[in-house]
Specification:
Layout (H helix, E strand, L loop, with lengths): L5 E3 L14 H10 L1 E7 L13 H10 L4 E7 L2 E2 L25 E2 H19 L4 E9 L5 E7 L4 H10 L12 E2 L2 E2 L6 E2 L4 E2 L2 H21 L4 E6 L18 H10 L4 E7 L15 E3 L2 E3 L12 H4 L4 H6 L6 E4 L20 E8 L4 H10 L2 E5 L5 E8 L2 E4 L3 E4 L9 E8 L14 E8 L20 E7 L4 E2 L4 E10 L3 E8 L34 H6 L2 E4 L2 E5 L1
Parallel strand pairs: 2-3, 3-6, 12-13, 13-16, 21-29
Antiparallel strand pairs: 1-26, 2-17, 4-5, 6-7, 7-12, 8-9, 10-11, 14-15, 17-18, 18-28, 19-20, 19-22, 22-26, 23-24, 23-27, 25-26, 27-28, 27-29
Helix pairs in contact: 3-4, 5-6
């Protein structure tokens, strides 16, 4: 039988003035110390396999209200510049490398061309923050979104040259740089360009995380991130043929680079794909759907995140600061017969940025875990705190709680969110219910333990759910609710919310008795048949990052 360290009490839904000793004033104080900023870190242009010019994609980011974004083209080679002009049309052809590329190695375009375009975009949109990122072809695995904050593009160029699994260039081997002497560690042997074994390729990927961590700690880069992309798309990994990612790989990456390898793309882009997000064929029998990507997405969210008690919960159960994000993965718009929304049109990452609006402030906010993602602007502000007495923690933080003694007792969960007056389809989104999910934290797992490959956390369940009737709207337009939980050990809490009622045919499961890991779960998107943009906008979710709670 399930044993949770969070035992639900009756929900305490009260007038808004009683929720957080004055929730409105609490929010105002919070905003004084920072601001919510919306972003997207995974998108493409004509530089690689996108179908629209660089400047046009920048304009769509701005039009759809993003405060920050990253151009993040694939590693390896590209045939054209950001306007679609082939490198071979330049006179002379600027592409260099050995062996000679058919296009241009990505390390060069990042260094010699893209950064100049990023600087021009920054001048065009001075109130936005535009990062120079790139999509890493991870040796032995799927893709990954990366970004580096630096005064010039040399660091991200060096990262791509050394670690990208599709970059065969050898021309810079042995080059002395501020980041060390460059070497190829991209899953292949040099000279000879022979493929290494899959475990060896994975080891090179871990070295990439360690390299960025080392640069960050040494100050040779100001900041950076490594967030693994569409993590379920290639299916499970195996030591013979590689594939996607298993839980042990995320543990390895996070161990090697805890300050830079800090998350996954739980909600992939391509949300107008036939099976919503991956583009793989999904086969369903009843409500059970299978494919190499674990049955496709569930309410637009990948299985590793959508499954309560699954892979993400296994990582959180160690107490890892390993966060969840969403992206557009924009290549070409759905209105042109493709499968993508423009960046910010459908999915946004919201991060609470402290101090100011600098590039470092934004990456620090991503790293902090005080963030959430939302589809269709279902919510555009979220305060999620856990408190006991005068102590309070928000997303990404840990509440130092007491179980017994003079100051011991329950903890109070407070949820406060806002929905905008309309979304990018001109409709006003409305939250039907918010689920409170809790799990135990049992501590780090040693890599030598068999549990290191365990991708489940059986303690995790939905412990409470709050429908529209439980929510109180305040004068600032925020909806609020509070709830008490009895704690008898360390754990974490996270949220998911949706516009769909429980038991919506082919969309959500039933409202079973709580606590339960299966409460109102999102069902496989393949059950809805052919997808389109309108269907996606009718099936909206948001997911928070966790609040951890210690226990004394």
């Amino acid at each position: 039988m399930f044993q949770t360290r969070f035992a639900a009490r009756a929900a305490k839904v009260a007038a808004v003035v009683a929720l957080l000793s004055g929730a409105a004033s609490a929010n105002e104080g919070h905003e004084k110390h920072g601001q919510w900023m919306a972003g997207d870190f995974h998108q493409h242009t004509l530089y690689t396999d996108g179908s629209t010019p660089f400047d046009y994609v920048m304009s769509r980011n701005n039009m759809y209200g993003l405060d920050w974004w990253a151009n993040s083209e694939h590693g390896g080679t590209g045939r054209t510049d950001g306007n679609g002009v082939p490198w071979t049309s330049y006179s002379p052809n600027p592409a260099v490398g050995s062996p000679a590329p058919s296009g241009m190695y990505r390390w060069q375009s990042l260094r010699d061309f893209v950064f100049a375009d990023v600087l021009k975009a920054r001048a065009t949109y001075p109130n936005r923050r535009i990062f120079n990122g790139y999509e890493w072809n991870v040796p032995g695995h799927e893709h990954c979104s990366t970004g580096i904050v630096a005064d010039d593009p040399s660091a991200i160029s060096a990262f791509e040259f050394q670690f990208d699994g599709s970059d065969a260039d050898m021309s810079r081997i042995g080059e002395k740089t501020p980041f060390g002497v460059l070497a190829k560690q991209n899953g292949r042997t040099y000279p000879g360009n022979a493929g290494k074994t899959m475990p060896e390729r994975h080891a090179d990927a871990v070295k990439a995380c360690a390299w960025m961590q080392e640069q960050y700690k040494a100050g040779t880069i100001e900041n950076g991130w490594i967030v693994f992309a569409h993590v379920e798309r290639a299916g499970a990994w195996n030591p013979t043929s590689g594939g996607g990612y298993n839980v042990e790989h995320f543990r390895d990456f996070n161990n090697a680079g805890p300050d830079v390898c800090f998350g996954i793309e739980g909600a992939p882009g391509h949300q107008v794909e036939p099976f919503r997000g991956f583009g793989n064929t999904v086969t369903c029998a009843g409500t059970a759907c299978t494919s190499k990507d674990f049955g496709g997405t569930y309410g637009g969210v990948g299985y590793y995140t959508a499954k309560v008690g699954g892979l993400w919960d296994a990582l959180l159960g160690e107490g890892r600061h390993f966060w969840n994000f969403a992206s557009s993965d924009y290549h070409e718009h759905w209105s042109r017969g493709s499968s993508d929304f423009y960046p910010g049109e459908y999915q946004k990452d919201w991060a609470f940025v402290k101090g100011g609006r600098s590039y470092n402030d934004i990456v620090d906010a991503m790293r902090s875990g005080n963030s959430f993602f939302a589809m269709g602007d279902l919510v555009d502000r979220l305060e999620f705190t856990v408190s006991q007495g005068h102590k309070k923690a928000t997303m990404g933080e840990t509440l130092d709680a007491r179980v017994t003694g003079k100051h011991g007792g329950p903890v109070t969960v407070t949820i406060r969110f806002r929905t905008p007056p309309f979304n990018n389809q001109g409709a006003k989104p409305a939250v039907d219910h918010v689920d409170l999910i809790a799990g135990n934290v049992t501590g780090p797992i040693d890599p030598s333990s068999p549990e290191y490959k365990n991708a489940t956390n059986p303690s995790t369940e939905v412990v409470a759910s709050f429908s529209a009737k439980d929510l109180v709207k305040d004068e600032d337009g925020f909806y609020s609710v509070s709830h008490e939980l009895i704690l008898d050990g360390p754990g974490y809490l996270r949220l998911r919310g949706t516009n769909l009622p429980c038991g919506t045919p082919n969309e959500t499961g039933p409202a079973v008795a709580l606590p339960s890991a299966d409460y109102c779960s999102p069902l496989p998107d393949a059950l809805m048949g052919q997808n389109d943009a309108q269907k996606a906008f009718k099936d909206l979710w948001f997911y928070s990052n966790p609040v951890f709670v210690s226990a004394k």
